[in-house]
Design a protein that fits this description.
The chain is of the alpha+beta class. The chain folds into two domains: 98 residues, Glutamine synthetase, N-terminal domain (Ubiquitin-like (UB roll), Roll); 349 residues, 2-Layer Sandwich (Creatine Kinase, Chain A, domain 2), CATH 3.30.590.10. It is 32% helix and 22% strand. It contains 14 helices and 18 strands. Strands 7, 10, 11, 12, 13, 14, 15, 16, 17 and 18 form a ten-stranded mixed sheet that branches. Helix 5 runs antiparallel to helix 9. The longest helix is centred in the middle third of the chain and has 21 residues. The N and C termini lie far apart (67 Å).
């Protein structure tokens, strides 16, 4: 979309404000809003200034001036604002006109440019399955002398005996019993459909929605794949719509991986493939999973670099509350066709040559999608470059239920890191696959690790309520 088309959209939709948005290190969206009287062609040529020192992990106060440069292809009319508003994603530049190397969106674009320069293919396609919970109430507090959290849902298993409903009607979702039931057990059909309606109005192509496995309102909505940066933009839009529709309905949506103890957490399984023009490069009829050698090398790169990769795809301390055996969590660094206990799954049902892809099941939605998708692509390309054979490296294929293997058999399988700190250690020792291409700078990696280690420390030094159960009367 050209600048002239943007200005025409503003006029045709009686737009009163233009919201310029950018992505922080943690994947959070920040914005500055201009009235249309201040928006013209020069706005798109010169950008919108902001204070980079006020964004965590971005810039020191002595070099705080930064510029948002609008990407007109990302524009959509905001479905939630009282006054007609056009939203536009931006890339971050320095005042000297240089692309800022800590801008996640620019990193995603550089990864796409690197793919094209590599000669492997022309485009990488991504499709995330981002799960979430819809709660009716959430409360939490952390003080010097107290710490607690509490979430509640009308359909939660723990509410079978609740009286406050004015007559409990039952129809609660059992623990691990929430996969695709119909109403009245599924109490959230209409709210998910409303989310889908608005997603489609804003340009997302939605394929389906359904209740997920966990009790208390776990949900999933799948939107159509696209190229790397566009998919990351779409995921940001998706989360924005989910959270705002939930708020309109008097509920709250969270993409936190593990808000409930004892039931499935929320993941973000990521499908990816590489094309050369219109030719899919991952397909080879009759091979294992109908995957080409190039696709197998891509899997080899993903699994070989997985411990470091997970620092970007599962970048929260809460991520590792989900990555434990027994809750369909993909903790085993192996690949398999159709097997959901493997970190890398090869979908084989109703797959065409162009639909042939790999599914990395470990990530979750605390990931900054621009960083996560870029890092996945670079890990896969490193596997292609070095000819990493996942079979020779001992990554499978494993076509058994890995959770049911004996302890001796499990010893042969490498697992994901057990904590965020372990993942950051892995990234610290294995980051060349990200930096050698120039997509991620060494400064970015060092800054990211320091930023995330501080998060881990903030959790580690705080007193956990369960410690009172374990130690108070010792």
């Amino acid at each position: 979309m050209s600048v002239q088309q943007i200005l025409k959209t503003i006029e045709e939709n009686s737009i009163m404000f233009v919201d310029f948005r950018f992505i922080g290190l943690n994947g959070g969206v920040h914005h500055i809003t201009l009235p249309v009287s201040e928006v013209n062609e020069e706005t798109f040529e010169n950008g919108v200034a902001f204070d980079g020192s006020s964004i965590p992990g971005f810039r020191g106060i002595e070099e705080s001036d930064m510029v948002m440069m609008p990407d007109t292809e990302s524009a959509f009319v905001d479905p939630f604002t009282l006054h007609p508003t056009l939203n536009i994603m931006c890339n971050i530049f320095t005042p000297a006109g240089e692309r800022y190397d800590r801008d996640p969106r620019s990193i995603a674009q550089k990864a796409e440019e690197y793919l094209q320069k590599s000669g492997v293919g022309t485009a990488a396609f991504f499709a995330p399955e981002s799960e979430f919970f819809i709660f009716d109430d959430v409360r939490f507090e952390n003080n010097m002398n107290s710490s607690f959290y509490s979430v509640d849902s009308e359909e939660a298993a723990w509410n079978t005996g609740r009286k406050e409903e004015g007559g409990n009607l039952g129809y609660k979702v059992a623990v691990k019993g929430g996969y695709v039931p119909v109403a009245p057990t599924d109490a959230q059909q209409d709210i998910r459909s409303e989310m889908v309606r608005i997603m489609e109005e804003t340009g997302l192509k939605v394929e389906r929605h359904h209740h997920e496995v966990a009790t208390a309102g776990q949900a999933e909505i799948n939107f159509r794949f696209s190229t790397l940066t566009t998919t990351a933009d779409n995921l940001i839009k998706y989360k924005y719509i989910v959270q705002n529709v939930a708020k309109q309905w008097g509920k709250v949506a969270t993409f936190m991986p593990k808000p409930l103890f004892g039931d499935n957490g929320s993941g973000m399984h990521v499908h990816s493939s590489i094309f050369d023009g219109d030719t899919p490069l991952f397909y080879e009829k009759g091979a294992y999973g109908n995957l080409s050698k190039l696709a197998m090398n891509y899997i080899g790169g993903i699994l070989y670099h997985a411990p470091a990769l997970i620092a970007l795809t599962n970048p929260s301390t809460n991520s590792f509350k989900r990555l434990v055996p027994g809750y369909e969590a993909p903790v085993n660094l192996v690949f398999s066709k159709g097997n959901r206990s493997a970190a890398v799954r090869i979908p084989i049902a109703a797959v065409s040559p162009k639909g042939c892809r790999i599914e990395f099941r470990t990530p979750d939605s605390t990931a900054n999608p621009y960083l996560a998708f870029a890092a996945m692509l670079l890990a896969g390309l490193d596997g292609i470059k070095k000819g990493l054979d996942p079979v020779a490296l001992g990554y499978g294929p494993f076509d058994k239920n890995i959770y049911e293997l004996s302890d001796d058999e499990k010893k042969e399988i490498r697992s994901v890191p057990g904590t965020l700190e372990e993942a950051l250690d892995a990234l610290e020792s294995d980051s060349a696959f990200l930096t050698e291409s120039g997509v991620f700078s060494e400064d970015f990696i060092a800054n990211y690790i320091a930023f995330k280690r501080n998060e881990a420390k903030q959790v580690a030094i705080r007193i956990h309520p369960h410690e009172f159960n374990l130690y108070f009367n010792v």
